[in-house]
Amino acid sequence: MRDTLWAGKPFRTFNIIDDFNREVLNITVSKSITCKRVVDELNKLTEWRGLPQSIRVDNGPEFIAQTLRDWCDHPDRKIDLVFIQKGKPNQNGYIERFNRTFREDILDSYLFDAVEQAQEFANQWIWMYNNERPHESIQNLPPRQFLLKYGKLHAHPRIVTGK
């Protein structure tokens, strides 16, 4: 996602959710999001959460770069990298819906002086979103409660990303 600071300087967010329980796994706020940054964030995430079966992405330059393909195809990972069709954001509906919620709750609701401030707000919001906010699509439970209820903490998530 793209937004601007109070002073007019642009910043981006790299959002990752788990398809299974709609849990926010990561929001990275930065002046730019490169393919290398995507891979770095995925490395951090897989250390904490394990390897996903697949990753669904749009056709942004940070996702179509060979670096991401090589990372997914590494023999230690073998993750399916799934691209949505160009012009078909509905094929990545969970992240599109999530992005709208994040935009309304955070990006459109606050003015940020610095990227670090936006990251702090995003981190606080992630906790609330995952632990307190019920989701109709997962039995009106917050994502973490749904995950605990169905014993999927050890499962390999299918993650989706958005910007």
Q: What pattern of helices and strands is seen along the backbone?
A: EEEHEHHEHHHE
Q: How many individual helices?
A: 6
Shape: globular
Helix content: 40-55%
Largest sheet: 6 strands, mixed
Unreliable stretches covering 5 or more consecutive residues: none
How many strand elements? 6
Q: Rg to the nearest angstrom?
A: 15 Å
Could you describe the 3D structure shown?
This protein is an alpha/beta fold. Helix content is 40%, strand content 19%. It is built from six helices and six strands. The protein has helices at residues 35-49, 61-64, 66-73, 93-107, 115-131, 143-149, and strands at residues 2-4, 10-18, 24-30, 54-57, 80-83, 159-162. Strands 1, 2, 3, 4, 5 and 6 form a six-stranded mixed sheet that branches. A hairpin with a 5-residue loop joins β2 and β3 (24-30). The longest helix has 17 residues, at 115-131. The chain is globular and about 45 Å long. The termini are close together. 29% of the residues are buried.
Write the layout of secondary structure elements.
Layout (H helix, E strand, L loop, with lengths): L1 E3 L5 E9 L5 E7 L4 H15 L4 E4 L3 H4 L1 H8 L6 E4 L9 H15 L7 H17 L11 H7 L9 E4 L1
Parallel strand pairs: 4-5, 4-6
Antiparallel strand pairs: 1-2, 2-3, 2-6
Characteristic terms for this protein:
163 residues; alpha/beta; 6-stranded mixed sheet; 6 helices; 40% helix
